[in-house]
Amino acid sequence: MFASKVKGLQKLYRLLKDNKTIWVVYLDIVNFHEVEFRYGYKICQEILTEIENEIYFTLKKQRSLFLFSHSESRGGDDFVVYFIPGENTHWEMSDLLEQWVLPMEERFNRRLSKLVKEKIRLRTGIARCVNVDSRSADYLLYAAVKEAFLLNKSEPDPQFFARREEITHLIEEPEKYLRTAFQPIIETRNGDIFGFEALTRIPGSICFNNVSDLFPFAEKIGQLYPIETLCRRQAIKAYPNVLNDKEFLFLNINPQILLDPEFASGQTRKLLSEMRITPANVVLEITERSAIDNYSTFRDALDHYRGQGYLIALDDLGAGYSSLQSVAELHPDFLKVDRSLISGVHADPTKWALLETFVTFSKRIGCSIIAEGVETDEEMRTVVQLGVDYVQGFFVAKPDFFRGSINPAVMEILNPERRLKYTENKPIISMIEPLPLFETNVLVSVVETYFRDHPHQWLVGITEDSRIVGVMQRDRLFAALGTRYGVPLYLERTVPILMDTNPLMVEDTTPLEVVSSLAMQRSDSQLYDGVIVANQRKPIGMVSVANLMKAMSERQIQLAQGANPLTGLPGNLRIDQEIRQHIERDLTFGLLYIDLNKFKYYNDLHGFQQGDLVIKMLSEVLLNVRDSLSDETFVGHIGGDDFIAIASPANLETLAANIIEQFEQSCKQLPGQENLSVALAGLVINTAEQNWTPLLVSERAARIKKEVKALGGNSFILR
């Protein structure tokens, strides 16, 4: 038996080398374990024997139909049959199921009727094996058997052969069948285009509704690598038609492709060079269609590409296989939040909280967040408000084969002057929460169920034609239903019967102080109702009165202190007052200007979250040194990484020396300590010698600061 199997395979190898085509059929019994459970092991062995005999006799009887045929048992209920079509073969490979498998199935079922009372059915996978000069015959046959096995285990596909033929056309003529569309990714900071994601399109395809159907099928038949390679090449060739200087090209990459020798050989980099694109302007977007099995090996591959200058993005965050483990193991430069999390984020408290967490998390690990699939005005406003770095989606611009324009509504939301106004006036949008929305035709019972399922939600909005027309308060709803006839009277009616049609509603640009004043002017019965935040009556979110009062209290305290919001130290207003008081009192005093060297470089390298930690650390050092001195020393935060200290001239050098010593000790606990140093510019101000003003003090300190920063390292100059 073994000798016969070896002999048959050797003949298949020879015929394959002679450029004969081999049809490979993988067979097994449908739900074999259930059959075995019903009839027992002994009966099942007889069934397998009958099937194996039927295959053997069928092939023997039909010898004249084929140039050569061979079969083998793979153990259990698995069988493989090989056909080499010849002159007498009047079938196509697509006919094998109907012409060969099903008739054989009928024949052995007639003999099995004496053993079992049900029909035994075969599951089939069919693959084609052709000669390839660069591959050995045993490898090619093994690959074909594996492909037939995978097809056997997958759901039946009536379009299989047509799809396979179309894949062949795509590979042979990619210029004809494959095109690349580009979708812009914009910066929320200023609305500029950051880059484009390359998206494959197959116009004129008959078998694939969209490209998302193409890749799984290509993987199933073992053609994923060539298809992805061709898509990548087409994207690189087309990209110069849309890009401007310093814009990034995002290329979708299956994780396993990075381990492909063809990709690693530098062919992609060579093509980029021909198109005058540098790897430093390319982001490899890891699309996790399949799980990463070996993070260590995959991380080594990523390091190889990072070494060439490529950046790395992790796609589908919040969906599919993506996980925090992938983020922790791969250290991506960008995290792309999946559409499933962005959809309706403005009205879903859970999605809102998740996105907010991802944004905070990304800052801590020094990477950027891209929200993809933003499709509405409300989603755009929410992702911007929550601090997402970059945005992509139909609301921004649809994919196009040419460089298209950005939706003007996006630019209005991101308008720098408008956003600057937000920052200066502290508008209500800076603290809103998501507002779940229901249409006016929804039954009261639906809202009641929602409140029961979400015990912490106390308010929902009611909309008509996307505009807010009222709200439903949790307590008032349950109070109405709790009356004697409340349930039969209201539960199956639509929500307008109970909604509040006159809630306090403010525009998203309204300052906190104005909203607070409006909220406090309401009647006692409405005093603690939530405030609806909208943009031209389109709901954006809500604010609770408790949070509004808390924000106002914090703002008043901060204004009273003149404090910097990051460090809590006195800000520019207090610093100016302190200098003026010393000058007006004719006091001689020492001023120390403290500045971090090359802080922008450190901030860019490690992320602004880490940069903020360094600034806070420096502020703590200044406070500790101040508290250790016997005289009164004033410490203020000018902004960014600039600080100031005002002290007695006699203590100025001691103050500087202690700051440098403690700063060096504190840096030992921080990443990138080799890039951290502090420059201290000291100035003694004698009001008897010169007419000083705060502006003149600032100019003199700035000149000394320039001198000391030129020294590098931890340095101090006193003038």
Q: Would you tell me the overall average pLDDT?
A: 84
Radius of gyration over C-alpha positions, nearest whole angstrom: 36 Å
- Please, how many helices? 27
Major sheet size, sense and barrel closure? 8 strands, mixed, barrel
- Counted beta strands: 23
Proportion of residues in helical segments: 40-55%
Spatial arrangement of strands, main beta sheet: 5-6-7-8-9-10-11-12
**Gross geometry:** extended
Structural class estimated from helices and strands: alpha/beta
Instruction: Tell me the distance between the termini.
Output: 99 Å
Low-confidence regions: 417-425
How large a portion of the residues is in β-strands, by DSSP E? 15-25%
Please give a structural write-up:
This protein is of the alpha/beta class. The strands form five sheets. The protein has an eight-stranded mixed β-barrel with strand order 5-6-7-8-9-10-11-12, surrounded by four helices. A five-stranded mixed sheet has the order 20-21-19-22-23, sandwiched between helices. A four-stranded antiparallel sheet has the order 2-3-1-4, with helices on both faces. Helix 2 packs across helix 3 (96-112).
